[in-house]
Structure formats: structure tokens, C-alpha cells
Design a protein that fits this description.
By secondary structure, the protein is of the alpha+beta class. The chain is built from 18 helices and 21 strands. A 7-stranded antiparallel β-sheet has the order 1-20-19-15-14-9-8. Strand 17, helix 18 and strand 18 (496-499) form a beta-alpha-beta unit. The longest helix has 21 residues, at 291-311.
């Protein structure tokens, strides 16, 4: 990894953070501190990642919760391991069930789009296989935050207020009362600086720790989730919860200019980032702030998304394999479609064959790239009363077209937007990286990786740099920090460019790189309340 740690081509409010004994980077300072405290108690990076993830369900509930999905890439023992802990559709949820309910599309809110939660099972499995400390000890900092409370930070407060205003207008059914009782106990969203507590959440975290997740999937909590769903027309049952288990998977990679960039295989959309990088490796970039650089990256991303949205699904339902899509021959075929003007993206014909992110590392060489999400902020707007369990609405990404590989089926995992990333070189870990934010995530991954590898930026500069976001067709949004001459030049090439109102929607990322001498270098976003806790 070559970069100048003092080189900042873009205005930055923070520097890289350096340490040797351990590091945790995430979007909430209190969550990062929870992970660091576990490192200092003798835990490893995996323990720290679990502690941070659990704390994030408390201190950033606008993006994730106890009902989240989770994915992880874990570097330990000189090898990269992948964990998919995204939940499937309940066994009673089908196209016919939606039709009987009078639904022609999957709703955003309510119990219908709620899939089986995967995050608690991920914590249990990571702790079982790679952790050092008891799970009860690892979850203790999160439980303490929930019980004692914590003051609301600025970005968190803004997102909480926006969600409250939307929910107050739109979520009027009895099934949503638990959300308002939990997250708006005074009849409003908590203000920035105000202390918020969730004692039910604390008790749930302690039950998960004491029972190694059994209470959540087969015991008291499972009974409460299933009973609430049955009472309010939901689909999750005790059998759905009891049958769930995370899946260990082989990560995917693309070799990009001397580095290997790793993502998890479908049902996640990490494949989209790899498809784009596989196209881009056939081009040579000049300066970063050059219209050709922007144009090529946007066009590659459009083609990658066209394929991703067409083919990515539960792997058992895909009609092509990731290996087919990532072949060099297919990348060259897609690359030839890119000219000097903006194109309308369409899927090719390959040969057949609201989210939180955290990065953690320790002095022993263990590193973790971890992400979990309820999707669309707080998720489906349903909280199981007195438990703090906010359910996801990941089912909203299912297609209802029977011919589409991502069509809803009982027990099937939907297309999932959350993706952790990892970088290696010559078989050695460089480190974890991630950019949260729905369909911005693979776009953020590509921009961070090209900033790092093509333009030699240090981690903080790679995150600070101006971002673009492809929306649909030829439409692209730009942050206001993108130079105006780039925007004008892209418009002349046929891109429908518009300035974004702010940085919301352009992702929020973290990076930890390990230098050859073992020094850890970390960075976090200027677009969030992020923090790098180091030791």
C-alpha cells in the first residue's frame, strides 16, 4: 500500500488514525469505544466487531437493529472467511399469500416485508468459531448503553427526526405502537444531546448473551416475535426462527492492478462492485479530477448494476453463476460497450456456467469487515413491545415477477444491498473497508478502491473525496464538492447530471489498512458521526 499519510487533496475535518495494538472504526463513537473496550479486556478483533455491532443496534437504531441482517469478512490465520447471516422469507410468505392479502406489490412497512432476523445469529456464530471472550461479556457494553442511555449525536438525531415525521404521518396501525413507545417515548424524536434509554433492548441483549442466542431463535424472544406476528397478520413463526442458521461462504475476488478486492457472493450485491472493477481494470486513468475518469467509472457502474439487478438473487435461484459474470471474456464484452457518450444500461448475456458498517483489527493480525442493516432506516417500523427488537423490511427488495430470479418464494433470501469489502495483496491482508448506504454501497466501494489504488490516496483522503451516484438510466447525482467543470463536461457527454442537496445518500464508510510493519491506519467518514477508536 503506497500513499502519503499527510497528503490531503480534499478538505478534511480529520486525519488518519495510527495504532499498533488494535483499532475499531465505525459510524458512532460510542460503538467504536465499545469494541475497543473489549480489545482492552483481552478480546480479539472478532470479539471487538461483535461488541461494536451490538452497540450499533443501540446507538444508531436509525440504520440497524436486533432484527437486522448481517454479513462479514474475517481475516484470521492467514485466510479470509465469509459469513452470510441474511434471513430468508418466512415459510408462509408467498406470491399467493400477498394476493390473498390484496397486495400487488411488496409494502415498505408493516410485518409483510419482515424477513427472519440474522444479526444475533451472526454474533453467536462469529463468537463460537473465532471469538476469545464469552458472548455475555462481549455484549455487555451494548446492554449498558441501552440501560443507562446515551446522548443523541448530530447525524443520528437528524435521521431519527426525519423517520419520526414520516412514521407519524404514515404508520397508524396498532402494530406500529411498539415503535413509537420505544423510539418516541415522549411523543417526539429525541433531540440532539438528549439522553435516550431502552431497557427492553438491554434485557434482550443480555438474554442473547446468556443463552448464546437460543432465547432469540428458540426461546422466550422467539415466542414473543412469533406471537406478535400472528396477532397482527405477519408471517414469521417460531419454526422460521428455529430453523435459521448463518452460512459460511467462499468470498469472491477480482484482481485489480496488483491487489485482490474481495466481496461476498450473492444474495448480496458485492458482485456489482466486482463487476465494475473487472470492467475498469481494462482502462488506464489519468487524473482523478478528469471527465474521462468520471465517465468511465459511471459507465462501468451502470453496466455492473444492470447485470446485478437482473441476475443477483438467492444463489439457488440464479440462472448464471458469479464465476460466469466475473470472467475476463465477459468483462471485455461489457467494456466494449463504453464509448464517449452516456449509454442506457441493459443487462448482458453472460456465458452460462440506512445500514451500519464497522472495521476492526488487532495486534495478532485478525481483521474484520462487518455490516448489518434493517434496510430503509428503522426497517419495517415494527418493534416487538418491551424488547427493543426492530424488525427489518428486507423483503421489499423481492421482485414479484415469477420469471425473475429474485422473485419472492417461501424460505428464499432476497437481493440484499449490504456488503463488506476486503483488500489483500500477494496473499497478505491489507484490510477491511466498507461504504454503507443501500444501492450506493457498490458505487462507494468502487470509488474508494480506485481512489486508493489508482490515485494513491490515504484512507482518510479516499473517504473524503467527492462522490457521484448513478441513479437510473443516464441520471447521475453529484456531491457539491465535485468540480463544476466535471459536471459540465459530463453533461456534454449525455449524462443527466444534477447536484445533490447534501451528502445524504452518498454513503458512509470506514477503512483500516495494515502496513507492512504492522502499523494500523484507520479512517472514517466526514459524512457521519464516525470515529476511529485505537489502542
Amino acid at each position: 500500500m503506497r500513499f502519503d499519510p499527510l497528503d490531503y487533496p480534499y478538505p478534511s475535518r480529520r486525519n488518519c488514525v495510527f495504532a499498533t495494538r488494535g483499532m475499531v472504526a465505525t459510524s458512532q463513537p460510542l460503538a467504536a469505544q465499545a469494541g475497543l473496550s473489549i480489545l482492552q479486556q483481552g478480546g480479539n478483533a472478532i470479539d471487538a466487531a461483535i461488541a461494536t455491532a451490538a452497540a450499533l443496534t443501540v446507538v444508531e437504531p436509525t440504520s440497524n437493529g436486533l432484527g437486522s441482517d448481517a454479513f462479514a469478512l474475517i481475516w484470521t490465520g492467514g485466510k479470509l472467511h465469509g459469513l452470510n447471516s441474511s434471513g430468508p422469507a418466512p415459510r408462509s410468505l408467498s406470491l399467493d399469500a400477498l394476493k390473498r392479502a390484496g397486495l400487488r406489490e411488496m409494502p415498505r412497512h408493516g410485518l409483510t416485508p419482515a424477513m427472519v432476523p440474522g444479526a444475533p445469529a451472526a454474533w453467536v456464530e462469529l463468537n463460537r468459531r473465532f471469538g476469545r471472550l464469552p458472548l455475555q461479556q462481549v455484549l455487555a457494553p451494548a446492554a449498558e448503553y441501552a440501560e443507562r442511555g446515551y446522548p443523541i449525536s448530530p447525524t443520528l438525531g437528524r435521521n431519527w427526526q426525519a423517520a419520526f415525521e414520516s412514521y407519524r404521518r404514515n404508520l397508524t396501525g396498532e402494530e406500529f405502537r411498539g415503535w413509537f413507545d420505544t423510539f418516541a417515548p415522549r411523543g417526539r424524536a429525541p433531540a440532539v444531546g438528549e439522553v435516550w434509554r431502552s431497557p427492553g433492548h438491554a434485557r434482550t441483549l443480555r438474554l442473547i448473551g446468556e443463552t448464546a442466542g437460543e432465547a432469540f431463535y428458540r426461546g422466550e424472544l422467539a415466542e414473543r416475535i412469533a406471537a406478535f406476528a400472528a396477532r397482527h397478520g405477519g408471517y414469521i413463526t417460531q419454526a422460521d426462527l428455529a430453523s435459521f442458521s448463518p452460512e459460511w461462504v467462499e468470498p469472491l475476488r477480482v484482481h485489480y492492478r496488483g491487489y485482490d478486492v474481495w466481496e461476498l457472493p450473492p444474495n448480496g450485491q458485492g458482485l456489482v462492485a466486482l463487476l465494475a472493477l473487472n470492467i475498469l481494470k481494462g482502462f488506464t486513468f489519468g487524473a482523478r479530477e478528469d471527465v474521462e475518469t468520471y465517465h468511465l467509472q459511471i459507465e462501468a457502474m451502470k453496466l455492473a448494476f444492470a447485470d446485478g439487478l437482473r441476475f443477483i438473487a438467492d444463489p439457488r435461484a440464479m440462472d448464471v453463476t458469479a464465476r460466469d459474470l466475473l470472467s475476463d471474456a465477459y468483462a471485455e464484452e461489457r467494456r466494449r460497450l463504453i464509448g464517449r457518450t452516456a449509454l442506457e444500461p441493459a443487462p448482458g448475456r453472460p456465458p452460462r456456467g440506512g445500514t451500519v458498517y464497522l472495521a476492526a483489527a488487532d495486534a495478532e493480525g485478525n481483521m474484520v469487515s462487518y455490516i448489518q442493516s434493517n434496510y430503509m432506516g428503522f426497517g419495517c417500523g415494527v418493534v416487538i413491545p418491551d424488547t427493543g427488537i426492530a424488525l427489518n423490511n428486507r423483503g421489499h427488495t423481492f421482485s414479484l415477477d415469477p420469471a425473475h430470479p429474485n422473485c419472492l418464494e417461501p424460505g428464499k433470501r432476497p437481493y440484499n444491498t449490504i456488503i463488506p469489502g476486503f483488500l489483500t495483496r500477494d496473499g497478505e491482508a491489507v484490510g477491511p473497508f466498507g461504504v454503507m448506504g443501500g444501492f450506493m454501497q457498490p458505487q462507494g466501494h468502487v470509488q474508494v478502491i480506485t481512489n486508493t489504488i489508482d490515485f494513491g490516496m490515504n484512507p482518510q483522503a479516499a473517504l473524503d473525496a467527492p462522490r457521484w451516484r448513478w441513479v437510473e438510466g443516464r441520471s447521475v447525482e453529484m456531491e457539491h464538492s465535485v468540480p463544476p467543470h466535471i459536471v459540465d463536461a459530463l453533461a456534454r457527454r449525455g449524462h443527466a447530471v444534477r447536484w445533490a442537496l447534501g451528502s445524504e445518500g452518498f454513503g458512509r464508510g470506514q477503512i483500516i489498512w495494515r502496513m507492512p510493519d504492522g502499523v494500523l491506519v484507520g479512517a472514517t467518514e466526514p459524512r457521519t458521526d464516525g470515529h476511529v477508536a485505537a489502542w
